[in-house]
Amino acid sequence: MRTPRPSTAVLGSDPGTGGASSSGDGWIRRLYEEHHGPLLRYVSSLVRGDRQRAEDFVQETLVRAWLNTGNQPSGWSPSRAWLMRVAHNLVIDWSRRERVHTEIQHENTLDKHVEPVDPMSQAVQRRFMVHALSRLSHPHREVLFYVYVLGCTGTDAADALGIPPGTVKSRTHHAIRELRRRHREHALAAA
Question: Cβ–Cβ contacts within 10 Å for residue 19, how many?
């Protein structure tokens, strides 16, 4: 939504006439006084309360209105709806640029923080988990499998096992408590 800048316009002049005039100053001042507050509230809601950024967007909106008067019929004045649409488009353009920039930053930082995979450590942990779970009762092992391995909610696990959701909660609690009791050194390391 870029508008060409009138080549003969001077800031503070009436863009419609192309030269400096006191009526141009009065026009932009009236535009500012009439629309600044509502525009600022609207843009602040779009940028989640970032007052400085909202002020920048409102200023850019009013500048674009001033620049656009050269392309409009004599006596044209932008409506509040027109100004809000311009401000909205400015915020959308900015947020798209920011989102792309943020995504690029996240892609680069993920590679730097990848932890090395230690297959021996994983094998030891798996063996420990199999041994620890094998010492639990079948109902406790079954509930832990549904909740922690399959990632089911308590209600989903209850439906799959054909037991009440409260029983799933109780069995999960007791199974974890039993694992912690039997393997204190690992429970402390995991905490």
Answer: 12
Kind and range of the H or E element at 18? none
Chain position carrying tokens 């054909």: 162
Question: Per-residue confidence at 133, pLDDT binned at 50, 70, 90?
Answer: confident
DSSP lists the bridge partners of residue 14 as 19
What are residue 13's DSSP bridge partners? 20
Return the structure tokens found at 122: 């994983």
Pairwise CA distance, residues 26 & 28, whole Å: 6
Q: How many residues are present in the chain?
A: 191
Q: Answer whether residue 130 shows pLDDT above 90.
A: no
Residue with tokens 């932890």, as numbered in its chain: 115
- pLDDT confidence band for 96 (50 / 70 / 90): confident
- Rounded CA separation 146/126 (Å): 17
The DSSP symbol for 64 reads H
For residue range 19-58, list pLDDT tens digits in order: 434 356 777 888 888 999 999 999 988 888 888 999 999 9
Q: Tens digits of per-residue pLDDT, 7-29?
A: 333 344 444 444 434 356 777 88
Under a CB-based contact definition with an 8 Å cutoff, are residues 131 and 97 in contact?
Answer: no
The pLDDT of residue 55:
93
Helices (H) and strands (E) in the chain, counts: 8, 2
CA distances from 190 to 39, 132, 185 (A): 52, 14, 9
